[in-house]
# Entry
Amino acid sequence: MVADGVPDEILRLAHTPEHLARLEMPRDFDPDTPYFPDIARHARRSVSAALAAASHAHASREPAFALMRPPGHHATAGSAMGFCYLNQVAIAALAARRDLGARRVAVWDFDAHHCNGTEAILKGREGLLVCSAHQSPGYPGTGLRDSGNSRNWPIPPNTPRGLHMDALRASLDAVVSFRPDLVLVSAGFDAYARDPITEMTLETEDFATLGRWLRESNLTAAAVLEGGYSTDLPTLVEAFLASWAG
Ligand SMILES: [Zn+2]
# Structure
């Protein structure tokens, strides 16, 4: 697969033609989300990696991880926002239903921020479920309650990590109950206690626990890097992956 060779018709599963054109225009999208030269190509490479991870996981039933930036879960059908330009998890979920033969696809988002874009894009679509546990109040201010095919676990700032993990366990249990053919994990590591942009309390071993839960669930799953802004990010990702792989 050519790294940034995702055809527009795949991107249009989740995004409007106007949004794809806007990504090429050299103007900032919002104060968090600047224009950079070639940002559309970088975002397309993130999508390409997510599609490859989903395809690999679905075919092999082995863990697959897309270690790419920019992240995607805040991007809506028509807008870049919150460091996100294209919503690779939403695109991969819709492509899995259309192209991989996956009938039921669930998104499990453990990033500290609500996946407003993923939720909005997949809202009301058949065979799809979105589960998110996230800081609230917090950016982007959505995800306060369940709606249609989205389930949300808002968690107050500075919640003790045991309670945060209880919410994450409940969100994964909802994914398991859906009996998905494929799970796409929006793996954000910004609920870490020393992340500079959130007020959450998870420690390295908690991310290892999330990986262990995935392994023990026997879910067919592919994960995509979302947020995570601490200099400890590599350690957090490694803890998650090592535990998931067993
Ligand atoms: Zn985040």
The beta strands are 64-66, 105-109, 128-135, 150-155, 182-187, 221-225.
